[in-house]
Design brief:
By secondary structure, the chain is α/β, with parallel strands linked by helices. It has 2 domains: 43-188, Leucine Dehydrogenase, chain A, domain 1 (Rossmann fold), CATH 3.40.50; 197-349, 3-Layer(aba) Sandwich (Rossmann fold), CATH 3.40.50. The protein has helices at residues 15-29, 34-40, 89-105, 126-140, 159-173, 197-213, 229-241, 263-273, 287-292, 330-338, 346-349, 352-366, 372-397, 401-420; strands at residues 45-54, 60-71, 77-84, 111-118, 149-153, 221-225, 244-249, 254-256, 283-285, 297-300, 319-321, 342-344. The strands form 2 sheets. Strands 9-8-7-6-10-11-12 form a 7-stranded mixed β-sheet, sandwiched between helices. Strand 3 (77-84), helix 3 and strand 4 form a beta-alpha-beta unit. It is globular. Mean pLDDT is 95; it is low at 1-5.
Length: 424
Amino acid sequence: MTVSTASQPSATYNAFRVAQQQFDRAAERIDLNPDTRRLLRETKRELTVSFPVQRDDRRIQVFTGYRVQHNIARGPAKGGIRFSSHVTIDEVRAVAMWMTWKAAVAGIPFGGAAGGVNVDPSSLSEQELEHLTRRFTTEISILLGPDRDIPGPDLHTGAKEMAWIMDTYSMQVGHSVPAVVTGKPIAVGGSEGRLEAGGHGIAVVVQEAAKRVGIDPAGARCIIQGFGNAGCSAALALGNLGFRVVGVSDSRAAIHNPDGLEVHRLILHKRSTGSVGGFPDSRSVSPDELLRLPAELLVPASIEGQITAANAREIQARIIAEASNGPSTPEADDILGERDILVIPDILANAGGVIVSYFEWVQDLQSFFWSDEEVEGRLERNIQKAFEEVWSERDRLSSDLRTAAYSLAIQRVADATSRRGIYP
């Protein structure tokens, strides 16, 4: 999933420390066995690679990339690959851990993984991007496989890069292996409904949450921070529910119109200009101001560490649905909880992507593909069930939704770990 960046996290922000803090809070709440706790708060396997790419001018440039597997107790590792000049090993560790919990909350038999290359993809030509993707795939191929580790798209990667990954792996083993990666074009084994999955999943959980807190989606105001594929998909799906998108941002600009923005026109505007900035009938605002605007729903769909103790008291939304991974810090969670703002955590809110990735993997393994309607129906049933289970856990623990979601996920992974035993 290609997501649009907003302001970068502060220099002191460490995504993996945040992920571990979130884990520790839930582990403490459910009185997790100390040995299991020590095991699950660390990653299982990490690979760092440095590899050369020949640029179009014949220069050789060396890039650094990572593939991290957090846990594989419940199934093969699953997680995206991101291309960003801000990628660090701790960021990749955090995303891998979040993927473990996300798959467990959704009831999907995957473990968690993540990968990335420290590169600004906008600085590469199409040929250079392909060479980088294929070489990185080759470097981490010792971990990959449809029954071992299955990458997917993430920040600044999409179907094109996934097709290159699939082809590179397939060339190495001598036959086509569509199930080695998800998020591919339909022509090479991709699934119907994959591109819309994130937004569809967000819409389902927001609709369920809105019922419980008494918000009527018809005309309710929505702000979307980050207008890449995830943000665009969420805007369209929420618009279908009746939400009025009044503010959006991307890496270059943030805009606001209290009467609502025409989402379809805005998407076309961004495709033609490269940014939401300058969209007719909107005023420019700062990224920080965007988060503070009046709205019933806020959807962070950019990068980690956007909602912190520094701005959590100024957010006016009644519901925050985390379309991106790790947008809120634990300190922000405490403040939002005190203010009775309902946070639908990332491991539940954006689980639509991993659910439909699982569907794609299953279809590839069987060479039997489903219609768009089948994918959509299965996704809705799966994520509604996950939401209801998390809400019930929230009531049982008298906690916030993040603690409830983590509690369920950790218990499921711990149970799998316990039943498998310790080898040898």
